[in-house]
Amino acid sequence: MSFLKPDRESFGLLIVGLASVALLAAVGALIYSWSFVHRAARADGRVVQLVERQDGEFRTLYPAFTFRDAHGVEHRVISSVGSTPPDHRVGDAVRVLYPTDAPTGAKIDDFFSVWGLAFIMGLLGLFFLPFGILILKPPRILAKFGKQNLDAQMFGP
Q1: Within-domain flag for 88
Q2: Measured between alpha carbons, how far is 58 from 90 in angstroms, rounded to an integer?
Q3: What backbone torsions phi and psi does residue 11 show, to the nearest 5 degrees?
Q4: Are 22 and 124 within 8 A, CB to CB?
Q5: Which residues is 46 bridged to in the sheet?
Q6: What interhelical angle do 8-39 and 111-136 show, nearest 10?
Q7: Counts of helices then strands in the chain (DSSP H, E)
Q8: In a domain, 3, yes or no
Q9: Domain count, the chain
Q10: Tens place of pLDDT for every residue, the chain, 157 residues?
């Protein structure tokens, strides 16, 4: 295995390794989200502002929302999930999940806010894992087309 000239096995191992890391991250995010949902208190909230964040050419709008916890204390939180166009408008009623010991860690109770990281990492892992395996263990049909020629075309002589 050379770091200067990639070969099929090194490339396949890299793809399988990255896919495996993505799947492990998905499992970790899934466990975290499941735990969060099951221990979180629920409250009704309202979107009070759309906070704009500029990242280079991209502009993303994050909903800022308020809610009252079980003790009647009002909290204002800026969501960690934003989009363009925004998913929420100022004045929208939202359902909120929040940890009772840290209400500022509240999330809007929608799929992407709660489960988004697990979903994306799972998709990445499940998408790239088969490709990595195919690169490592190509089907027999590749042998009919000249495995050596394919390797030379993909990775150089």
Answers
A1: yes
A2: 21
A3: -65, -45
A4: yes
A5: 66, 93
A6: 160
A7: 4, 5
A8: no
A9: 1
A10: 455 556 878 888 999 999 999 999 999 999 999 999 999 999 999 999 999 999 888 899 999 999 999 999 999 999 999 999 999 999 999 999 999 999 999 999 999 999 999 999 999 999 999 988 888 877 654 665 555 555 555 555 5
Record the pTM: 0.77
Whether 2 is in a domain gets the answer no
In this structure, is residue 19 part of a structural domain? yes
